[in-house]
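hi! just following up on the protien thing from before. the input was this:
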Amino acid sequence: MSAPTWQPLPTGEFTGIDWSAPGAINGQDPYLAWAEADHFAGYRRGPGKKPPKWLPIVIELSAQAEVPALVAASRTAWLQIPRVYLNVPGLRFCSARVRPRFFDKLRSDAHLRSLIQRFELGLPVAPHTHALIDPCTPTSQPTPAHGLLGGKVLGLIDGGLALANSAFLDRHGHTRIRHFWRQDAYENGNWPGNQPRHREPLDPARAGPTPHDMGYGHELSGAAIDAAMTAYTRQGQVDEDALYQHLQLWDLSMPVNHGTHVMSLACGPGNPLHPMHDDASRADLVAVQLDWSNVLDTSGGAMNVSVLDGLMYILARCAPSAKVVVNISWGTLAGPHDGSSILEAAMDQLIALYGGRLQIAVPAGNAYQSRTHVNATLQPDQTLPLHWRVQPDDRTQSFLEIWLPDGAQDVKICVTPPGQTEPLPQRCMGQSGVWTGDGSDPLCGLIYPTSSALGSRGTCVLLALEPTFSRKRSAATAPFGAWQVTLINTGSTDITLDAYIERDDVAIGQNTGARQSYFEDAHYNTSGNIGSFVDHPDDPTPIRRSGTFNSLSTGQNTVSVGGTRRAASPSGHFALYSPRKPDPDAGRPERPGVKKVPDTLQPSDDNPTLWGVLGAGSRSGSVIRLAGTSSSSPQLARQRLNEA
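and the predicted 3d structure came back as:
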């Protein structure tokens, strides 16, 4: 590779924003700036292809604004909001599809600009780059409140939901899933083994109609599910394979699905050795199956839009009197970790607005041993070199977020790519740009704003890398190896910071070519011993297990759940991958508001040698074992539903 060349961020091909202009990046989503810099290559596009027609975003409105005000100040020709967001008075958050005109209006319309506090990009996968069906208009009304579910209702947002599994049937053999919304729109999607990938729209006569208040995806009622099950019943037994083929639920051809396992722990009948006859095993269910791109992209690029839409769908199917518990066993590694991300803030407000009738359970995360978190305090004139190990043959982009508190404007950043002896130009707060290997396509980018839409405190510095391998010879690839990222405090006060490597592993049963990068440090104990000195406040390594927390789980009103072992061992009762309670690293300085400790704990491992807990496989009667706090969270959701 030739020596990297520094270039300013280009003017956005979609937003029209001159990202190199002074102050242009401040208060913005750095992932949006990077996406435009590399022509949306990380979103299944390449150089020379046309930009998406629409971009999905999540929006936080200003303190006194509500969603109807935004609808009144815009036009559906360039901003479209699902109708479901009209259902909750006082709500300051929504998802939207926007066209380039939206960004033009933000620059020219002071009233529109006053309504929007911040917005964040969602992964613009194909179903999210088209117009909504029947979006909000100034004359739109909330969803009629008739025929809605009352009593105790369990909501689930996940992937791969086997809706005909016997774990989700009542004693008469009818489904307890009263409403099922799948967010994807194509039968032949971009998943491993699907060749050639000629996508075809789902048949609404089989997959169900598009819910009018969401504007995309397909919905099945409980009656429609029962009718389909009856049509594929042979000699008293449902032919689940044939049923799922008919419903075009191609992902359920796999014997194991994350969502099915999680849902069975939240509301299934248990197993013969531990039967469960509780309210959860009889409750009505509302299920949201995330777009398949959410499953493939473990960095959570589409999570903010998809999860918020899913939560609003569940609430729209429940009566005002219903007691709703929602489990979201999803998440990522990077983010502010102080509850100020848009999605976390939206969930907090929804819980507050529902006044105790809504509870949301979320997992604490599984990356305790993954070396993806750094916590350090930089004294004046101190330099901190971080070694970021990016792996070969990584076919996905890699991201490093450095979170700095307010008043950290004197921190400078210097990056040295693998194989280079000279560092790239030093960057200060307010500066951004890309580095190219041949003067054209970017290999990496650094966006260093004074404030970020990703959080409400301090700022986030984003270092983004292209994949280290691609089968396309024309694609830009970043060098693999140890990237040295050096932080320099040129000010006169101490600065406490956190650095988080974004999740980039492979989802269960998939083969996406993702490879998780990680930090290296000579002082870090890699033995995996749960009680090692790594968790001691005086350990000199900046790599910390403590603080490695699911970025979806640090809100004030949601309930985060860590993982334990049912049978403790001499090394402790915590699952090796889970955050601890209490925090073993409690003596170290932290940025304001950072959350490191789960609210509660539930078993996620049976014992030290046999990880995971048993739950339902895709087919009725099958049992599989799944490890992770994704299994802890639904057990807490079950408990809360029983207590509601």
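Residues 629-643 form the longest helix (15 residues).
The mean pLDDT is 92.
cheers
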